[in-house]
Design a protein that fits this description.
mainly alpha, 9 helices
C-alpha cells in the first residue's frame, strides 16, 4: 500500500512531488494560455531559480513568450494561494504548498480559481520576512537539489516565439469574427421583434369587421347570443 505523502527526502518537511506521486495530491487548474507541459516547466523553473525570479526564467529560454504576469498567475494557481510574497526568492516545489492549501477548510477561507484569496489586512514587511524565513526552513530545497535541475529547452526559441505570435493573431481574428456574428444576431433579433409588433393592429381591425358581418346575417335570437 503506497503512502499518500510526497516521496522525496526522508526527513523534515522539505518534499518534492515526483512524477510517480498520486495525481490526487494536488490537482490545480492551469491558467488560460498555459498547457500542462508548460506548467510543469514553470514548476521546475521555480524550484531552480526561486519564486518571483522571472527575469532568470525568461533568460533561460525554457518558457519562450511567457510574461512576468503570466508566470505569476500560474504560480498562484500552483501554490493554491493569491499571495506569493511569503515565498519570494525561495527554491520550493509549489505543488507541496498547493497540496497543503487544498486541505485548508473553514468559513473564513475564500477561494478564487482554486486559490485562497487575501481577506485580512495587508501583511507588514516584518511579517513577510518572518514567513519567508519560516517557509525557507520548512520547504526550501537544498542547493544540491535545485542546482541539478535540468530545464527543457526548445530547439529554436525564435521559431517557437514566431509560432506563438502567429497563433495569437489567429485567435484575435477568430474572436473578432465571433463578436461580429453576435452583433449581427442581436441586430437581426431586434428587427424581427419590431416587425412582429407592427403587424398586430391591422389584423385585429379586419377580424372585427368580419365579426360584424356575421352578426348582421343571423336571425334576431341568434344575433343576441352571438353579441353576448
Amino acid at each position: 500500500m503506497s503512502s499518500s505523502t510526497p516521496r522525496s527526502m526522508t526527513a523534515g518537511a522539505r518534499n518534492i512531488l515526483r512524477s510517480n506521486d498520486s495525481a490526487s495530491l494536488w490537482n490545480y487548474t492551469v491558467a488560460p494560455g498555459w498547457s500542462i507541459n508548460e506548467a510543469e516547466v514553470l514548476r521546475k523553473a521555480l524550484m531552480k531559480f526561486g519564486v518571483g525570479n522571472w527575469s532568470k526564467i525568461i533568460e533561460s529560454n525554457c518558457l519562450v513568450g511567457k510574461t512576468n504576469a503570466q508566470m505569476n498567475l500560474q504560480t498562484q494557481r500552483m501554490l493554491g494561494q493569491q499571495s506569493t510574497a511569503e515565498f519570494a526568492g525561495l527554491h520550493i516545489d509549489p505543488r507541496v504548498i498547493g497540496q497543503k492549501n487544498s486541505l485548508i477548510q473553514g468559513d473564513h477561507i475564500r477561494r478564487k480559481n482554486g486559490c485562497i484569496v487575501n481577506t485580512g489586512a495587508k501583511l507588514s514587511r516584518e511579517e513577510i520576512r518572518r514567513r519567508v524565513a519560516e517557509n525557507r526552513e520548512l520547504y526550501e530545497l537544498t542547493e544540491e537539489e535545485w542546482t541539478t535541475i535540468d530545464l527543457p529547452l526548445p530547439e529554436d526559441p525564435q521559431l517557437l516565439l514566431e509560432a506563438k505570435k502567429a497563433e495569437k493573431i489567429r485567435l484575435e481574428l477568430e474572436l473578432k469574427n465571433v463578436q461580429r456574428q453576435i452583433a449581427m444576431l442581436r441586430k437581426s433579433g431586434g428587427r424581427k421583434n419590431a416587425e412582429t409588433d407592427s403587424v398586430d393592429s391591422p389584423k385585429t381591425e379586419q377580424e372585427d369587421d368580419d365579426r360584424e358581418e356575421i352578426v348582421e346575417d343571423q336571425p334576431l335570437g341568434k344575433r343576441a347570443r352571438i353579441e353576448a
